[in-house]
Amino acid sequence: MTALEKYREEIDHIDSQLAKLFEARMDVVLKVAAYKKKQQGAVLHPNREEEVIKKATAALKNKFYSDELAHFFQDLMAISKNLQHQWILNEKQVGFAGIEGSYSEEACINYFGESIERVSCPAFEDVFIALKNKDIRYGIIPLENSTTGKVKETLNLLDKYDVQIVDETVLDIKHRLIGLPGASLEGVEEIHSHSQGMEQSSRFLDGHKQWKLVAQPSTSISAKYIKDMGDPKKAAIASDRAAAIYGLAILNGDINNIQKNDTKFIVIEDK
Questions:
Q1: Has this prediction a pTM greater than 0.85?
Q2: Which domain holds residue 131?
Q3: Annotated catalytic, 265?
Q4: Which of 11, 53, 194, 259 shows its CA 20 to 30 Å from the CA of 100?
């Protein structure tokens, strides 16, 4: 046996022990999730990660590995946190702003998975109200966009309602101008969208000063409105997903002010 083969054999043995320890840890993580579900406690505790990493690195004999061990435990706790979320949310609902096809719903699916039960809330504040009324377990709401900055409405609602931020997720936002099948860009007279959608596409809109801009509670509501009205002169700024859901056509793609247009969403729960 070569030295390399021996080292690999040692690693395989250590990995088998790690697998057993990982399974044991996840078993305890689910016990913690069960307790939190019963007590209606938060999954995320901001200081917990720092405490765990501090204890782990203190136990190292060779401090040379401190940074690597910190990264290892950050990943391990992220896995544990997601497992708790999935277990707790097995019988819980998540509220999002808008209707089917909204960016908030897309962020919800990306974070929690397609199978999570989702509750449509007409406007941002309705997510907070649903939390206070215990109609949902979590809400997901946009906090900040890389183009337009902080979402003022969300900041105001965070001040108004006694909720806590559980986690965050980032979604790549790609705005499209969508309309009825057969409609043309030249025939458009009126644009519907959420104010954020318009702000993030302002350069494109500035090239069409003749258009009337109409604010809606969400981009998905705008898309549904275009479908329901059946007027080829009306169009919406929304996502590819919204266009597909409501049977609309892409009249103009990539209308973002900047190519990299990210929105940070926060997951919130009632205190």
A1: no
A2: 92-172+263-270
A3: yes
A4: 259
